[in-house]
Amino acid sequence: MRNRLAICSLLLATLTGLGYAQARKYFGTRDQNLRNCLDGFEACDRSLLTPAQSSEITELQHDQDLWGCLTSYGSCDPSALTAPERSEVTTTRERRNLLACETTLGLCDQSMLTPSQAKRASDIKEEQNHLNCETGIGACDYTLLAPSEAAEIHSLKRNQNLLACQTGADLCDVSMLTPQEAKEVAAREHQRNLLACKTGDGYCDKSLLTATEAAEVARIQRQSNALACEANDDMCNQSVSHIKQAPRKVAKDTSSRRPTSEPGSPIPR
Fold first, then answer.
1. CA distance readout (Å), 204 to 165, 189, 247
2. With 0-12 CB in 10 A as exposed, 13-18 as middle and 19+ as buried, what is 221?
3. What confidence tens digit (pLDDT) does each residue in 96-126 have?
């Protein structure tokens, strides 16, 4: 009798253990399946979800799909949307494309524009191109310019280049100058180089100086160095010979001076 009871207890414990393991495996699968459904994986088994979970997952997936259709980020399944939602998505795409056609934000699809929108986008493109040609900022397409506009831009470019050459800007193109303008620009450049040599500011090309100018620059540099040495400035170069200046003479004026006398002696008359 005792043996039978022991065997029954053993069988009952074994069956209980097996049931617990199967239940743990079952519920573990349900948890993983719920995570798969939340993440949008194909391994989602809707039959393992509770009615509330299935409803919530359906609503979440719908919102994710609507967000993807409205923003063009992520997946978009228009068939899963309602009619008002599909209309909203279509309007948003048309507006986004119109913005891209009127600006440089995104890709422009001309086929999505109405005739009036296409005309407006074309006008904006021509105005922007004209501005680029005038300022030199951005791409300039001369084929989009009318003949009168092209002549105007060419004249403007010549004037801008002349200003650049006159002011010593790097954008100067000497080949665009007339002979008279080139002569004037060369004279201004020579003057700037001479001033740079005299002041020590900027780049000085002494090979461009005349003999007289080189002598004048050397004299000024010696004077500047002498003043720096007198002021005990760090710029003083002791190896450079200073300019010798004549000693100052104080003139003696004896006409108004009278001989001094010993204290107490009478003043001569």
1. 18, 11, 35
2. middle
3. 999 999 987 788 999 999 999 999 999 999 9
